[in-house]
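Help needed: design a sequence for this.
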């Protein structure tokens, strides 16, 4: 996935047209340090600039502006995905996040690993919620 930064023109931020068949999803976030809460917003436009969908979300457990921007992107990605869009260009104004996603971060991913004791991948089939496990087992016994 490639995330272009916003285009700066004489101190103003302007929307940049993109090529069909892609749609563009612009996202942004706000952050309130005093209550660890943020607000994220997104808008999805076609290559003519016509809005196709938009929304906003309260972002809980936000400690930094980067947390807010990251969660806003995740919400935008989820919302675009559930609407069936596959060819999407995401655009945001957080240079640190954009660079990290595009592999241009000044902080290498190996430096993140020192902050975790262990990282493990578990397939979803191994992490079923207890209610689902109980329901499946009950159906098998019937």
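Sure. Designed sequence:
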């Amino acid at each position: 996935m490639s995330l272009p930064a916003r285009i700066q023109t004489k101190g103003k931020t302007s929307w940049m047209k993109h090529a069909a068949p892609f749609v563009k999803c612009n996202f942004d976030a706000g952050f309130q340090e005093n209550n660890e809460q943020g607000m994220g917003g997104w808008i999805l436009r076609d290559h003519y600039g016509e809005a196709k969908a938009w929304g906003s979300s309260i972002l809980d457990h936000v400690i930094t502006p980067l947390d807010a921007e990251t969660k806003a992107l995740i919400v935008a990605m989820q919302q675009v995905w559930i609407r069936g869009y596959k060819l999407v260009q995401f655009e945001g104004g957080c240079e640190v996040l954009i660079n990290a996603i595009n592999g241009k971060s000044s902080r290498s991913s190996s430096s993140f690993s020192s902050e975790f004791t262990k990282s493990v991948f578990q397939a979803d089939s191994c992490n079923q919620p207890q209610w689902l496990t109980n329901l499946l087992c009950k159906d098998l016994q019937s």
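Helices lie at 65-82, 95-101, 109-113, 130-141.
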